[in-house]
Amino acid sequence: MGKEAEDNKNLSEKNYGSYLKVSREALGITPEQLAKGLCVKSMISDIENGNKRAGWLLQERLLRRSGVASEVYESYSGYGDFTEWERQEEILDFLEALDIGQLGAALDKYAERYGLEKAVFGFSASPQSAYGTSGNVIRRLRRQFYLGMLGMCRKLAGAAREELEVLFGAAVRQSVSEIDCKPLRGLVLCAEEINLILEYIQCLPANEAQRKCRELKKYLEDAPMEDDTRVLNYPKVLFVLCQLLQEQAGTAIRECAEVIRLCDLGIELIRKTSRAYYLFELLETKKNMIEQIIETNCRKGEAQRNEALRGMLDETDGWIALFGDLYEQFEVEKNQTSDVYLYRGQDTYYAGDMIRARRKMLGMTQKELYESVGCTPDTLQDLEGKKHSTQPFYLQEMCKRLGLSPVCERTELMTADPKAREMEKIIRYAANDRKFMENLEQIEKLKNMIDMSEPINQQWVLRTEGMARHELELMDDAEYETVVKQAIECTLPMSILEYPDDKECYLTNSEMESIYHYSLLVRHEDAREAYRRMKVVFRLEQEFEEAGKEKNHVRTYELYMKYMASLLCEMNECVLAKQQVEKVIPICLRARRINMLDGLMYVWTRSNTKLQKKATEPIKASYDWKKDLKCCLALSQFCWNNVRKEFYEEVWKQIVGDKS
Asked: By C-alpha distance, which of 199, 117, 113 is closest to 152?
């Protein structure tokens, strides 16, 4: 092993540690806070410096506590970790399907496989002593998952509150041991831990439950986290608090007003983040409280106070009708039946599958690959054949040889410099705010902080800088197309766009995004050429769908499948476009992700209108396109998307002649 190889042998750990440190420091989280209940403080330092590997379960937990959403990075897992991830995903599938029998059996197998103490029903032990908190952090995190899922299983089965208190309490204490005796203030918790605490709180006596629920609400409001992280728990916490208040306080106007205020807090965050967690529950609770106040005012002879309330009621009824119609139309249960969305792993792959697919894409034999990285034939064959994992060094070298980032938990830049990671985040946020001139200045600084000889970094810089220059009209379409092609070719030949459908394929999120921008350049002039350029990306997303894994890649799936539907409509393949929309919308609704709904409904409206003009089935002449276009407008208004709102208003004006 040469000096360069020696220097890089812990590259995966160094990059993960760097990413963790940047995320932690960005939110002002100390190592002590991050480690609390999981490990000793010194272990955090060792992990961040790349001197120690955290292990899959701990890595995920540390990132979650640091405010990193599971959907913003890709993860290559070794055989053992990936197998456990698949077992957990199977358990989540049964929970989502509300299949109590299968869920219980899967949990039994999980406990047996990892040597966990199985729960027995009919508890006599006190909540504090029913299950221990012994063992290393990996064992405790496994026990927490098992007990938490079992609690949800027993809750679905109608178990007594005392039993659920034991299960959820024991689950919480695996990483938050002082839940019963110390305040939450100052702790750093992830969404899964917060959800378990909330489930435990609901099992307590009413006064104690309400007090702790208020404490949890305050914690979420004060904790250093971004809204996309806060929204995972905040709406549910508010809904539970509303239920507790209604049970205890009855229907007095003051209490009803407080419940309305709490509902509004949750709905506001939902609208801001384009999610729909517990949306119906909050809307319907708000409606009931408004109606109770109106009724009380009428009974007291104070009906004049109801004018503003009726406007509020009309707006709430409008949102309930909007989403209710959508959920009914696409046959999805409107009420929240589980909290699976908190636990789903996103963009997780088995390293061997990724290596095998990538090797074949590049036309490389096994011999060429194992000789180029210096490992034995058996090492590569066992990795690709799912027999066992290989040493991290060899996996890193294989990734580099195949044009992939040589780290197993990666974002789009390949660097161990925390300052570079932070700069990447600043650039991303500035681009989201369309501050492209700032982007160009920041990118120049970033270039001096990263290794620009690395293809992964070149791809990111070319795409990001090119987009900024193009948006500022410093680069015309032809120049931008050349830059985007160069970005793709940093890691792949352009011929990959014609890769046969019958051969294994794997693309990184960065590569898919580069291809997407390449397609967007010709979308308006030639939809068929835009579709051709995206074919390999569409193919991958369809494979996720066929394997039932689209929910594990929902961020890319919803974006690219919406784009596919839009292109099909522009190509006048309207029946196919509708079929695509009919698949994607239910997935978005089940995942409580509503940011793509207005665009999908617009494709639906356009496709139906085109079919109606042709007077062909399956569209009837009575199709009401105005209703669906108003739905698009209302969805954009709900999500406070002014750009889309103005677009739909302009479409309406062009067709109808006014904005009524």
From this structure: 199
Instruction: Measure the CA–CA gap between 138 and 73, rounded to whole angstroms.
Output: 22
Q: How many residues does the chain have?
A: 660
- Label the pairing between strands 348-350 and 409-410: unpaired
For residues 159 and 155, give the distance between their C-alpha atoms in angstroms, rounded to a whole number. Answer: 5
Contact 85, 348 (CB under 8 A): yes
**pTM confidence score:** 0.91
The answer to whether 33 touches 429, Cβ cutoff 8 Å, is no
Rounded distance between C-alpha atoms, residue 222 and residue 227, angstroms: 12
Structure confidence by residue, pLDDT tens digits, 233-272:
999 999 999 999 988 766 678 889 999 999 999 999 999 9
Task: Return d(Cα 262, Cα 390) in angstroms, integer.
Answer: 52
Most distant pair of Cα atoms in the chain: their distance: 89
Using N-to-C axis directions, what is the helix angle for 625-638 and 597-614, rounded to 10°? Answer: 170
Q: Between helices 279-299 and 234-249, what is the axis angle to 10°?
A: 30
Q: Model confidence at 79, in pLDDT bands (50, 70, 90)?
A: confident
Element (DSSP H or E) covering residue 75: strand 74-77
162: its two tokens? 């005392």
Q: 206 with 186: CB under 8 angstroms?
A: no
Q: Which residue has the tokens 């989502």?
A: 96
Residue-wise pLDDT tens digits, 416-447: 777 887 888 888 888 877 888 988 999 999 99
3-class DSSP assignment, residue 275:
strand
Strand 348-350: give its sheet, edge to edge. 348-350, 74-77, 409-410
CA distances to 252, 285, 295, 652 from 305, in Å: 15, 20, 11, 36
| Buried b or exposed e, range 403-438, using 16+ CB within 10 angstroms | bbbbbbbbbbbbbbbbebbbbbeebeebbeeeebeb
Alpha-carbon gap, residue 114 to 646, rounded angstroms: 55
Which residues make Cβ contacts (< 8 Å) with residue 252, sequence separation at least 6? Answer: none
Rounded Cα–Cα distance for residues 618 and 601 (Å): 17
